[in-house]
């Protein structure tokens, strides 16, 4: 990671070992979007770390193009290492798993499952949850659709009271779950109304792999190949 660039340089100076930075996103952009005052300092450090590395790996073409065009890092010193999942096709047991999840939470057979997951004390995820609860869900209720929104993730702020006030409004807070893959399988739609943060949202890739349709903001879909996913 770029944060370890300083020690990688010292190791290289002492041993001659070549160094590689594997970064999931351009870090300073993420913290700039979160309103952190010190993002310009991180930008200078991150740029220096990537320029000093013998090679750097990026998850998306967008990030590689950014460092090549803006930080003058040679293309030959960059590589794309996409985020992947350990399945080769949509799961065959999707309908069975969906039935199990519906039985667990008392979801009707005809109701659609809309899923959102993430660590909920992380501001971009918490803000996205608030968009779901305060903006998206009232619209769905107004149109009298048949659905339940399942929220998975740890560290929900205590002030939200495990979303109990919204239980009667088609929202189920499942908390931290050991087998998030089952929830991806069960989902008809994965919601990703993320408005800040940087880099590719790996949960979108996982949701698509497990057979869910993803509906996302443009920010949330950054790094996703629209030629493959629409």
Please outline the helices and strands:
Elements: H1 5-15, E1 20-23, H2 27-33, H3 39-52, E2 55-58, H4 61-70, E3 78-80, H5 94-105, E4 112-117, H6 123-142, E5 147-152, E6 171-175, H7 180-186, E7 189-192, H8 202-209, E8 213-216, H9 226-229
Parallel strand pairs: 1-2, 2-3, 4-5, 4-7, 5-6, 7-8
Helix pairs in contact: 2-3, 5-7
Notes on the protein architecture:
It is a single chain. This protein is an alpha/beta fold. The protein is 40% helix and 16% strand. The chain has 9 helices and 8 strands. The strands form 2 sheets. Strands 6-5-4-7-8 form a 5-stranded parallel sheet, with helices on both faces. Helix 5 crosses helix 7. The chain is elongated and about 60 Å long.
Question: How would you summarize this macromolecular structure in one to three sentences?
Answer:
It contains 9 helices and 8 strands. It is α/β, with parallel strands linked by helices and 230 residues long.
């Amino acid at each position: 990671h770029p944060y370890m660039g300083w020690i990688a340089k010292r190791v290289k100076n002492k041993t001659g070992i070549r160094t590689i930075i594997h970064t999931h996103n351009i870090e300073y952009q993420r913290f700039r979007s979160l309103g952190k005052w010190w993002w310009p300092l991180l930008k200078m450090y991150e740029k220096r770390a990537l320029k000093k590395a013998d090679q750097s790996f990026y998850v998306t073409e967008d990030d590689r193009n950014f460092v090549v065009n803006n930080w003058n890092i040679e293309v030959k010193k960059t590589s794309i290492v996409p985020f992947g999942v350990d399945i080769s096709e949509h799961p065959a047991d999707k309908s069975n798993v969906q039935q199990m999840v519906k039985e667990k939470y008392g979801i009707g057979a005809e109701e659609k499952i809309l899923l959102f997951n993430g660590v909920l004390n992380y501001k971009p995820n918490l803000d996205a949850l608030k968009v779901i609860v305060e903006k998206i869900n009232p619209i769905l209720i107004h149109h009298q659709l048949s659905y339940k929104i399942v929220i998975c993730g740890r560290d929900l702020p205590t002030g939200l009271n495990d979303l109990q006030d919204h239980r009667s409004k088609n929202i189920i807070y499942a908390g931290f779950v050991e087998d998030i893959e089952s929830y991806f399988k069960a989902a008809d739609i994965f919601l990703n109304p993320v408005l800040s943060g940087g880099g590719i949202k790996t949960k979108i890739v996982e949701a698509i792999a497990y057979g869910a349709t993803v509906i996302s903001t443009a920010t949330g879909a950054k790094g996703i190949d629209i030629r493959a996913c629409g």
